[in-house]
Design goal:
Structural class of chain B: alpha+beta
Largest sheet of chain B: 6 strands, antiparallel
Helix content of chain A: 40-55%
Strand order of the largest sheet of chain B: 3-2-1-6-5-4
Order of helices and strands of chain A: EHEHEHEHEH
Number of strands of chain B: 23
Low-confidence stretches of chain A: 1-6
Distance between the termini of chain B: 177 Å
Oligomer: heterodimer
Helix content of chain B: 40-55%
Mean pLDDT of chain A: 87
Structural class of chain A: alpha/beta
Distance between the termini of chain A: 36 Å
Mean pLDDT of chain B: 84
Strand order of the largest sheet of chain A: 2-1-3-4-5
Number of helices of chain A: 5
Shape of chain B: rod-shaped
Low-confidence stretches of chain B: 1-9
Shape of chain A: globular
Radius of gyration of chain B: 83 Å
Number of strands of chain A: 5
Largest sheet of chain A: 5 strands, parallel
Radius of gyration of chain A: 14 Å
Number of helices of chain B: 17
Chain lengths: 139, 716
Amino acid sequence: MSSGETPAAPLVLVVDDVDHGREIFAEYLEFRGFRVATAADGLEALEKAFELRPDVILMDLSLPGIDGWEATRRLKQDERTRAIPVIALTAHALASAHDRARAVGCDAVVTKPCLPKDLEQEVRRQLAARKAGESDVRP
Amino acid sequence: MASVAHLDVLPRSGDGTGSKAKLALVDALLAEQEARPCAVLTLRWLERHTGVERAVCAVVDHESGRLTGFTGLGVSLAAMDSFSVDLADRTHPLVVALGGGEPVAFHDSQSLLRTFETPLGNTSFYAVPLGGGKDETGLGLLLLTGLDDGPVSDDVLWAAELFGMRLGSIWYRRVQADERRHKRERSWLFAVINAVTDPLLLTDADGRILVANTGAEMLLTAGEDKREGWRRAVALNNMLFSASLFTSAAERGPTRRELLLVDPSEGEDLLFEVLSTPVAIRLGETGVVSVLRNVTDLRRATEEIEENYRRLGVAEAATRAERDRLDLILNSVLDPILVTDPAGNIMRMNPPAERMFTFPAGKRKVEVERRVRTNDAVFTSFVSSLYAGQSRHWRRQLSLLDPQTGATVPVEAISGKVVSKQGEETAVVTILHDLTEAEEKARLYEQVKRHSEELREKVREATAELAEQNELLRRQAFQLEQASAMKSQFLANVSHELRTPLNAIIGYTHLMLEGVSGEMNRAQQDKLARIDANARHLLAVINDLLDITRIESGKMPVQSERVLLPELIDEVMAEVEPLIAGTRLEVSRLLSPDLPEIETDRQKVKQIVLNLLSNALKFTPQGSVAIRLEHECEAGEISIAVTDTGIGIAEENQKTIFEAFEQANSSFARRQGGTGLGLTICRRLAHLLDGRIILTSRLAEGSTFTLFLPCKPRTA
């Protein structure tokens, strides 16, 4: 679980207040070769995001204290973290929850339960999109 | 005097009788003033001195023109009275004897004597004329019997002459006196007729004027001294008068007629009323007395009176017409109208007033009359109060009684004084307006008002109640909304809370199956696959429940977009490819070439078709499944039909198949992994898209589910 084994591997910040929720996706993504950091609430997520500058953030929305929507809003307002793709990860199936997520700046919404490999696909898509966006920005 | 003169010529006395006897007769006759005693004296003298036996003295009566018995000797009075000889009978022997002047002897032997009668009968007699024969016809005759035959003695002749002279003398005196008297009477008569201002005339049968008073003379006679105009007027008047006389001559009695003459002095027309009366003027001759009454002024006055009368008649007619008109107007008014004089007496009234103020004709009824009197008293009191007041109009409410029913009749009396041009109050006109109806209306109005108030109150109450109910409903609605929101929230929470552990189950199962925690043996893998399948089924049920909840609470958003159906079918086929691969079914698709692009919610159409197709695959053990898309041009619809050769659905189940948790064959369905909510969701989604799903099926032969969708959404 130590970071920096392969510096080239993308860093994914998995935020979830539920232990097994963090564990499943973190374990699977590490197994699939990603670097993974975790946070159990919104405040920790913000601290880790500012500190580690991950390549992708998996953000559970229902969090104690600062919830996922608020945390995403702050990340997207901050110059340092604005460019990091945020994938909302939620057990809320209603469209309103998804809409609110997109409204605060989430780049994608994935509904739980979801297969770990489907989540990995979404992470890779976001990374590819970010890469393409960066290449667009600096030609 | 005259008698003395006559006596001067006494007849000479003859030789026969002594002078003494004759002188005695003369004295006796002279002493007598009346004719009849003279006759008697003479006849007695003749009897005594001359041998006369019986005698008759007959005298001529000029008035009647007859010789009549005057006095007799030795004859009956009746024979004397009836003796009369018409002097006009010239051949009568006595008339002849009278005219002869000489004594005539009539012998009883002669047949002549038998041709006439005398009071003497059929004895021989001598007829000796009286007097000296001065008169043509003589004074009369002495009829004497007993005389010797031969010439009549001188004594007889002397006595006859003497008596004749004496008779003549007496009669002459009488005539003279008569004449004087006549003259006097005549002058009186003329004074009288002249005093009559009306012209008065006596005319003979030929119309000649015999007598005329001054009035008549002025009209009908003209002296030589008169003017020419006067004379001409008089001539004209005479002509007119004669003509008028002639026209009335035929009448026997008095006649009356009008005659227009000319006033000779003034020349004006004068109208006379002529009264003519026939009178005998002479023996066998008739004249006419005419009185002319000047009616010129009378006529004028009459005409004036007639004119005035006519004018009066016209004025009266006009007044009557006016009055009739007034009556008509008064009578046409339904309200009682009364006209009273200043004393308060009713002068006129119309029928409605009569009904209130007069006793009805027919049988008297004490009650009715008492009511009428009461009304009269009330009204009289009202009118007198009006006279006492200064104002010309008066208005007051009175309470009268209906004479027939005795019911109280409230009236409004409106009175006005009628004042003449001279400012004199001549009458009072009063109209009585029946207020019964007005009071009834007022009463009804009050009632209506009260009811209206009550109604308004009720409405107010009802409104308040309604408002309360509304408030309650609003609260209930709010509560329902809240409840609904809470339900949705609850379901969302339940879903969230179910999903979180499911995520763990599915996630860990997957990690293990992926070999993240090391390799699994075959048995372990099979068991993990079972866990995975059941977890996924549970997830599908949760998702379906959530869908139904969202549709029912109207929170399922519809996002329309242009949809190309062939593409959509491709996607569906790709998704069911693993399912198809697990079967040996022949799956075909038939797309009509004219399919248009439609505007709808792509995701929901896909959900429906996917559901129908997976159902068909699940419930068809063998055979085929076909999907056919057609354009229903006329209806403006697209039909997507999924047909299978599966187990089919019994007719009795076809209606309930779309209800939640209904599956025709539950155990089979469960084995197939259905949630029992699929068709329910499909139908509701179809409705959401303004479409519908139709099922045709036969048990054990197969089913066809057809989704019809509008090409364009009906609602915005």
